[in-house]
Structure formats: structure tokens, C-alpha cells
């Protein structure tokens, strides 16, 4: 795949430790981005096995009959299931997942998780949780959304975003979309082999 920034969608990660409030923040930010007319995609990484289907449904039965991929289509939505029969511990890569999205229908992809991947990120941090701050060691973090200013944060070049002010976080994202360089916004979406 040849890298062409005009054919890719900007990608912005939300990184933080479990329980820091990433999902809650995104749930509050997305409506503000939608109100601004943006088409928002979301890629969420989970360490848990998920089962979005019921054993009594045809799609469940067909998946467990041995399908490697199943596309369930309805008038309101469709879901694409990939089954990894060959490995219990297979973790899909960020770029592999991004390649599965229809980028022609998106203005931005927000990524929750993939904390250690190289992509531009907003850190979601709660000092009271006692977890280390990621911005101290991750050069891809461009802002920190937190409820309390972390100790020693004053020397940080990162903007502080109020985790309880989702409109302000959305405004930061809209500004980033307009001003960030292509290198900050775009990733090549080739599946990792």
C-alpha cells in the first residue's frame, strides 16, 4: 500500500490504565464531535473475550460451525466477525484493525486502548489511582485529560484537558484536526503480517 494522506483518516488514540475513564470520556466527547458534523469511527481494544451474539441466533450457530469470517447485515447495521481458530493468544494489531474500517465514511478514528502503539494520543490519567503517568515516557502523547493536575505536571509541555469537560476535549480534537501535521494524524493502514 502506498501512503497517501488524502486517502486516509486521521487517527487519535485515548490511552490510559484500566479504570481511568477512557470509555466514559469518549462517550461524552463523541456527541460533541458529531454535533460539529464529524463522522466518527471508534476502535476499542479489549483484553477480554467478547461475545456479542446469543447461542440461539443463526449467526452464532454459523460462527461456531467453523466460519472464519461472518458478516451479519441488517437494515440498521452490520457486524463483521473474525474468528481466530488457529491461535488462542492472537492479538489483532492496530493497523490490521484500522484496515477493516470503511474510511470513506469517516472524518476521524478514535482509538481506545493500544496504549503501547505508536500513534498520536491523549492520555486519560487519574492521579488518585496511583498508576504512573504515560506522558512522562511516551512522546506520542499530545495532551493529558485528568481530573486533578498530576504532581510535577507544571513542567510538562502537554496541554491539560479537564476530564469532566468533554466539550473542551472535543474542541481540542477539532483544533488538532485543523492544525496537526500529516505525520501526527495519519497512519498507514496496511495489515501487519
From TrEMBL:
Biological process, per Gene Ontology: Mo-molybdopterin cofactor biosynthetic process
Molybdopterin-guanine dinucleotide biosynthesis protein B (MobB) domain segment(s): 11-147
Domain of life: Bacteria
SUPFAM superfamilies, alphabetized: P-loop containing nucleoside triphosphate hydrolases
GO MF term list: GTP binding
A Pfam family assignment: MobB
Name this polypeptide is given: Molybdopterin-guanine dinucleotide biosynthesis protein B
